[in-house]
What we know:
mainly beta
Amino acid sequence: MRTNKQCIILVIFYWAFLIHGEIYADGRKCILPEQDFKEFSDCIKRGNDGELYLASKYFKKLSFGENGLAAVYSQEEGWMYVNRKGKVIITGVATMDNFADVFHDGLVRFSKYKKWGFADEKGKVIIPAIYDGALNFEKGLAKVCTGCRPECAGSDCEHHSFAGGEWFYINTKGEIVKKAILKEGSYE
């Protein structure tokens, strides 16, 4: 039988791990681009705080950009960005040239429930996922659409475009600036 002192020590030890998010459950496979797209088991885990984390043993296998983020892929979450602490800060990042899309004007496209929005480099959602399609920001403006649909842009369906719908330009605050006139689909 354990003494009260041993139980207290165990509770403190367990509590310390909870605070730092080190006790994980629900491990998932992930692919690390810097490792020749090799798949690793038990790589993405859900912390006790409900957030997703990269298992610490994979930190050294990542290349972090100037913004302190690295791209990781998992079948369940798609492309995502993790910070230097291993916390997944953005999931559902758009794919561009078979890789995670990069930040444009400080924002990156992400998809949630088949809708598109934009997040910043800290993972804060700046423009909620409310659009049916979205293109990257360029010089402070991005084209977004409502009522459009994704289509294959070739026989192999390697590339996609958005077709139809009503298109608008928005600024980096998400404000509609003007209506866009597009004659053909726009590539994602």
